[in-house]
Write a structure and sequence with these properties.
Elements lengths: L7 H11 L2 H7 L7 H19 L3 H7 L2 E3 L2 E3 L4 H10 L18 H35 L2 H13 L3 E2 L18 E4 L5 E11 L9 E9 L9 E7 L1 E3 L5 E4 L2 E6 L10 E6 L6 E4 L6 H37 L1 E4 L11 E3 L4 H33 L3 H37 L1 H4 L5 H9 L8 H12 L6 H18 L5 H26 L3 H6 L1 H24 L8 H34 L3 H4 L9
Parallel strand pairs: 3-6, 4-6
Antiparallel strand pairs: 1-2, 4-5, 5-11, 5-12, 6-7, 7-12, 8-9, 10-11, 13-14
Helix pairs in contact: 1-9, 3-6, 5-6, 6-7, 6-8, 8-9, 8-10, 8-12, 9-10, 9-17, 9-18, 10-12, 10-13, 10-14, 10-17, 13-17, 14-15, 14-17, 15-17, 15-18, 17-18
The structure holds flavin-adenine dinucleotide.
The site of flavin-adenine dinucleotide (FAD) has 19 residues, from strand 5 and helix 13.
């Protein structure tokens, strides 16, 4: 079967049936979008992704990027495809029309992006990072900056980046040493070294606009003293034409486990004392401004992992339908019985259904969070804006970490379903697995997301946002309880939500009692358990929509809807038991990880 990358039937179900996309379009500011145009956009994205971009995936992994004399060359298949992406304006689908983008609803952008990311994330990201840079400039730049940079970044003519990390400053961004000194003309001279910079240098665009974190000389240490500067690779003349080469150079690219076609660059700024930067926003606002971009990037990272997982799952399930191996278990004594496709074996079915539950649940969770995010932007009522913004911020670390961690696990299990064929390159699941691993690391490692959830997001607004989140789950539970064969599942999800609330309070209490390290030692298991509850919620929601439609549906739809009910049943009646165990273990608050002496870890 030809590669599908994402399940189109499922995408349609989520958008139009689960989240009632047509009502959302009517209520929002989307005059140019209706069901027909949305379908067309997704179809075109899918066709470009599958027919043109996906065939480059394996080769670009083998070829990678080439570094020579400060320049980085991307695989030779990329430039014509980059042009196609820009011609279709696929890079700025969700960017607002005021900035020069398409202003598409979040679920349409998510659907198209799923296809592009699974087809070749590295290529697509060269085209999209500039829009995030443009967003920061649009919100915080001077009129002159907006005019000079935003149109070319949004069109993809110029590339964008984000320069935070330094050798001594990874998670601890406050430890950066890159410095800025104000010049008489109001510009700044920047000096420092950045590492691990995605798309820091490449040959796809004539200019690259770098947002750079640096500390103005004399400003306090830590994150409070950090400012943000726009540092173009080529300075831009007042008439918008390209000017002199700025003193920012790529000094090397990293060899990595995956995403080989994405340039991960070391950057030297001001080695000749001539790196010019332009202050963005006010002095010392660097972290606040960069965090806006980081939050977008965290959402994109969750989607990246989900896209790999979805593609890997589809490879696995279609392989399982075709690979003939062993007799049916009920025929184990009958040596004359024919061998069957491996999808008939109970253990393979269990594995596939576990993968499907996660992929479906993650897709619904991502699309739902995107809708919440735009609701906060579009809300006219202040209270509605506050609630939606709070919810979006609560869910962001979960999108980033849970989708990354589970997306990776799904890819690993795809290898397992294919057996030896999964371990070799031909079927791509090993590449998806390698490519996926980075998603738990960049844009803030797993532990950092868990700390953010526990320390900042759960207590936000006096716990009201978390309370509203639990109430939303209860609404779905109440609807599901009215459907006869879903009532028992709904009760289990309700119990899981209650337990989630109780364990969150318990962790908060531990921190208040001064057992801060003990609480944080359990923060990541807590995040993952909360993610499980969200998946159970999303699958129950899907089942509630699907169950009443089974009877009378045409055969393929009936199988799809029944699949929804069985997927929810599987996750809620098997995986969620492990989540209750996880809650017990978090509440038991074992302190061994804190108490063990450093030397007790061994290896000395
Ligand atoms: C392929 C790739 C692309 C990247 N792209 C970019 C980019 O475009 N721009 C950019 O600026 N950076 C980029 N990065 C850098 C990336 O964001 C960092 O690697 C990441 O933030 C982690 O920093 P670190 O590698 O220094 O690890 P460290 O900070 O040394 O962390 C190591 C481990 O310690 C844990 N840890 C550290 N501090 C704490 C703490 N306080 N509490 C709990 N646990 C903690 C971490 O969770 C992690 O598991 C990229 C990295 C890679 C590999």
């Amino acid at each position: 079967m030809a590669q599908q990358l994402a399940d189109r039937r499922d995408i349609d179900f989520v958008i139009w049936e689960q989240f009632n996309g047509e009502a959302y379009l009517k209520a929002g500011d989307y005059a140019e979008f209706n069901r027909k145009t949305c379908d067309m956009i997704i179809n075109e994205a899918r066709s470009l992704a599958i027919k043109e971009i996906f065939p480059t995936l394996s080769e670009s992994d083998t070829v990678g990027v080439k570094f020579e004399n400060g320049t980085v060359t991307v695989p030779e298949t990329f430039p014509p495809l980059y042009k196609l992406i820009l011609e279709g304006e696929w890079n700025n689908l969700m960017v607002s029309p005021e900035m020069g983008g398409q202003g598409a609803p979040p679920f349409i952008s998510a659907a198209a992006t799923e296809y592009f990311m699974a087809a070749n994330w590295a290529l697509f990201t060269y085209a999209t990072l500039g829009c995030s840079t443009a967003g920061m400039i649009y919100r915080h730049g001077t009129e002159e900056m907006k005019k000079k940079y935003v149109p070319k970044l949004v069109s993809g003519e110029w590339g964008g980046t984000m320069l935070l990390t330094e050798p001594q400053a990874g998670t601890d961004v406050g430890a950066i040493e890159t410095s800025a000194v104000k010049n008489e003309d109001g510009t700044y001279s920047i000096t420092g070294n950045k590492i691990f910079i995605t798309n820091g240098e490449h040959n796809l665009t004539e200019n690259i606009i770098h947002p750079v974190l640096a500390r103005i000389e004399g400003h306090e240490p830590g994150t409070r003293g950090i400012s943000i500067f726009i540092v173009p690779k080529y300075l831009v003349n007042d008439d918008g034409t390209i000017g002199e080469r700025n003193d920012i150079v790529c000094t090397g690219v990293e060899e990595k486990q995956g995403i080989h076609a994405s340039a991960t660059c070391s950057m030297s700024l001001g080695s000749k004392g001539k790196c010019i930067g332009y202050l963005l926003g006010q002095e010392k606002q660097g972290m606040k401004i960069m965090f806006e971009m980081m939050n977008e990037a965290r959402m994109a990272t969750g989607l990246q992992a989900m896209s790999y997982a979805s593609a890997a799952y589809l490879i696995a399930v279609n392989y399982a339908r075709e690979r003939i191996q062993s007799r049916d278990i009920l025929e184990f004594k009958n040596h004359a019985a024919p061998s069957v496709p491996i999808i008939k074996h109970p253990d393979v079915r269990r594995n596939l259904l576990w993968m499907k539950a996660l992929v479906d649940g993650m897709r619904s969770f991502f699309y739902y969070t995107g809708i919440i995010g735009t609701r906060s932007e579009l809300a006219e009522d202040e209270e509605e804006r506050r609630v939606n913004l709070g919810m979006f911020s609560l869910l962001t670390p979960l999108i980033k970490e849970y989708l990354a961690a589970k997306g990776y696990e799904v890819c690993v299990q795809a290898i397992q379903v294919l057996g030896g064929s999964g371990y070799i390159k031909e079927y791509l699941v090993e590449q998806y697995t390698r490519d996926c691993k980075i998603t738990t690391i960049y844009e803030g490692c797993s532990g950092v997301q868990a700390m953010d959830l526990l320390a900042r997001k759960l207590p936000s607004d006096g716990g009201k946002v978390f309370g509203a989140f639990l109430s939303d789950i209860k609404k779905t539970v109440a609807d599901a309880k009215k459907i006869e064969n879903l009532a028992a599942m709904a009760e289990r999800v309700e119990k899981a939500a209650d337990r989630l609330g109780e364990v969150a309070m318990h962790l908060g209490g531990m921190a208040m009692e001064g057992k801060i390290k003990e609480a944080f030692a359990h923060s990541l298991p807590f995040l993952h358990a909360m993610g499980d509850v969200i998946i159970a919620w999303m699958l129950l929601w899907r089942a509630s929509v699907a169950a009443p439609k089974i009877e009378g549906a045409k055969k393929s739809d009936a199988a799809f809807y029944e699949g929804q009910v069985k997927t929810a049943e599987f996750f809620i009646n098997t995986s969620l038991y492990q989540t209750f165990g996880a809650f017990d273990s978090i509440k038991a608050a074992c302190a061994a990880a804190i108490e063990i002496p450093d030397d007790g870890f061994g290896g000395l």
